[in-house]
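The protein record passed on below.

***
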Amino acid sequence: MTTNALLLGSIGVLVETSDMQRRAFNAAFADAGLGWEWDQETYAKLLKKSGGEDRIARYATQRHQTVDPEALHRAKVDHYARMMADNGLTLRPGVRELMDEAANRAIPIGWVTDTGTAQLDAIFDNLGTALNRDEFAFVGAGMHVDNRKPAPDIYEAALADLQVAQGGALAIEDTGICAQAAVAAGIRTVGYPNAYADRGEFPDEVRIVTELTPDLLDD
């Protein structure tokens, strides 16, 4: 079957910012005087469930502390944006080539993330000419659905918006929990793990790769 849509999932599929995000969380916690410090091991465990704001809320509950998850996450996003501006961003290996091949074949491309629009805007701003928003026929965000990944809602929304059948779409995800969402939507899924991802947590149906290549569009 011919691939009828290329659905790039989370932020981490396009850019490797896992540790930058961890440091941004810690900077927000320091500003709030919480005394929280997420080291690499802790953060890797926390990433087993998606959603930054929810991650903060769960961690506070575990520590029997009361915080404002929304305010803390806004502060984290601000730190994250500054770090991106200071350090710059580059696309992960193969992303540009895969997107160019999809465009050459007139295959619509979606960015099927359920993160907030502020983070997406910051990424577009800091990638500059390396990635143009107009290249995407669909850009998702958390506001588009009631249930975040691993629920399939955001993928179902993308398929409906692009008016394509699930059987011909190709999804790329960087974590097992996010890959579950694509698989649940009945979409052929490739895993492109980020630096903090546990490969063992990807669904069995998912093919794991270390680099994106144009031939992934060939079923």
